[in-house]
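Because showing beats explaining, we think one record worth quoting, sequence and backbone structure tokens together, and here it is:
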Amino acid sequence: MIDGEDRIRGVGGEQLYVRHWAPEGPPRAVVLIVHGLGEHSGRYGHVAARLTDAGYVVWAYDHRGHGRSTGTRAHVDRYHDFLDDLELVRRHVVAQHPDLPLVLLGHSMGGNIALAYALDEQDHLAGLVLSGPAVALPDSVPGALVGVSKVVARVAPTARVLALDATQVSRDPAVVAAYQADPLVHHGKMTAGLGVALLTSMSSFPDRVADLRVPTLVMHGTDDGLADVAGSRMLEAKAGSDDLTVTYYEGLAHEIFNEPEQDEVLDAVVAWIDARV
């Protein structure tokens, strides 16, 4: 059940849909969820239920161009708009809970955005949880293609270039069917502008993550066909946080919170946060 919902003004006037779920008693901390490409915050109700049962108040929002927020579908004019929107949402959340520590939880593209935000705004966070983060260029993407994509994005930033394969989100057929039937999920292609924004951010992380100081949990399914597990291995090797946990789930697909083993995964998230707040 959604305990509350609102809309706040994002960068450039876009209206961002925001929702929250509250525990029965006084909350111990805030968990702010940053969702992935094409989806929306409503797909995290079961994650919020597990976290509220553990005493956390959970907030989530729909990115611009996603879900119930306004904006061109699956598009961003500039990558930093995502980070600026997240900062506006964080301020909105902190205004409701000024004395609570805040943990950022990002999945896939949301993990990309959450990591970039954490590197810029470390002092605002008590922890960072990354699920199947899209933070590395796949080996299958040659540098020449990235260069061509940047040219296309400059000439036609809203041109549609690539769609996700819905069958890759989970090994559970019911999850895939629900995803495919969800009217708030963007089932078409992302724009060149968004694609290049993500590729550019991915290429920057290997040289930046040594500066990461926030306690960080990285979780990735080894059979993830949408966000390359190489990104999590890069974080394991290069992230500078003294409190870094990287867990690989053998055989799990992209949405580890929606796999048959989701209870094990969510229990691990709760235990990790419990130990740090």
